[in-house]
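Researcher: Next sequence.
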Amino acid sequence: MSIKVLAVFGTRPEAIKLFPVIDALRIETGVDCRVCVTAQHRGMLDQILRLSGIVPDYDLDIMVPGQTLDSLTAALLVRLGEVFDIEKPDRVIVQGDTATAMVGALAAYYRKIPVSHVEAGLRSGDIHHPWPEEVNRRIVATMADQHFAPTATAAEALRREGVRADTIFETGNTVIDALLATRSRLLADPSMCRKIDTIIDRFGAKRIIAVTTHRRENFAAMRGIAGAIGQIAERDDVGIVFPVHPNPNVRTAMADALPASDTIAMIEPLDYPDFVRLLDRSTLVLTDSGGVQEEAPTFGKPVLVMRETTERPEGVIAGTARLVGTDPALIVSETSRLLDNPSAYDAMSRAHSPFGDGHAAARISRIIANGR
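Model: Next structure:
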């Protein structure tokens, strides 16, 4: 007998990592998969809905300016509970570590609805880095009965916490499924990424450095990060492409601290196809994003992680990523080392990515459809 599942997500990263699962459930297993979006991030979420062709069955449109975590959590719990009471799904699927994921699992638990957690088991070991995501994902783990761990390290973290071994499934990360599928579409239709190609082409033969930064725990360090970017931009052999996150804490710091420069393109957040293209054409990446730590190594791009800790240690262990923190001097020196030392660059760019093979969604959909 076919089951009905409800996929719940609210941000762009969740949508990127869940659309392959939703497609696999609907196309490969015939599961009745309904979709509820909270729109925790409205505009950035809508980009992925358009790309994937997913039309939500419920759109809670919950984002409001200046929203606190308290008000967001309370609103999510009430509104998601209402949807669950209407739909009465056999299973709820959540992804990652957002407020939507945490509250979605809680609302399902209150109704004794089983929860599948995609990208389970990531741990930094510090409840304040990343904040509040580290605690969000730990909370989900206490309520889920299917834990889809992207790596062996994530699976082992769950076992150490006492999660039953027969509920943990090592699947790979669905972000690799989305990344490879999108790159294939771009190769077939280059017009999809004309916007970013035009920006990159302005730099001619210069090496491209992609920059992203948005983490809450880094807000106090944003001016220092901006200073490091400015120093790197003084080189005559690089072009920096920096899609600036819409959060005012990021935008204000960058606008105030980064000098106008012909070697820096500070641009609006990119649609996902353009971002995939940026990664593909970059020489290296500076980021505090979790997802980019997974995506860039798939294309052989070294990642310098502007954080003190990471819940994705596999990249550091494999040699695809290096933690540089937020110290401007270290960011500049490590970037320069990769640009000036071909051996150091090759060691990172040729390291094997540990995050998946592009078939995670198929594995996950079969497990959900079969009940294990």
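Model: The CA atoms of residues 189 and 363 lie 28 Å apart. The first strand starts at residue 4 and ends at 9.
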